[in-house]
Specification:
By secondary structure, the chain is mainly α. The chain has one domain. 51% of the residues lie in helices and 0% in strands. The chain is globular, with a radius of gyration of 11 Å.
Length: 76
C-alpha cells in the first residue's frame, strides 16, 4: 500500500478533517505508542498503520478496503 492509498482510506472512513486529526493525534499501542503519522514518518508500512488504526477505531472488516475498492488505484 502506498501513502496515498492510506490517506484515501483514512478520508473514506473518517472524513478528511477528522481523519487527518486522528492520524496526527491518536497514539496507538500497536504502533509502539506512536500516532499513525509518526509511524508513517518512521517508515512503518502504510498497510500496517491502516490496520492498526482500524483495530483501534473498531472499523468493521468489510469497510477496511474503503468505500469503493474497485475505483482505488492498485498496488503493484
Amino acid at each position: 500500500m502506498r501513502h496515498s492509498e492510506f490517506w484515501t482510506l483514512v478520508e473514506d472512513e473518517f472524513g478528511a478533517a477528522y481523519g487527518r486529526s486522528l492520524a496526527a493525534d491518536q497514539v496507538l499501542l500497536a504502533l509502539e505508542d506512536r500516532t499513525p503519522r509518526q509511524a508513517l514518518d518512521a517508515g512503518v508500512d502504510p498497510k500496517a498503520v491502516w490496520l492498526a488504526l482500524c483495530e483501534a477505531m473498531d472499523v468493521p472488516p468489510e469497510r477496511r478496503l474503503g468505500k469503493d475498492p474497485a475505483r482505488r488505484p492498485r498496488s503493484g
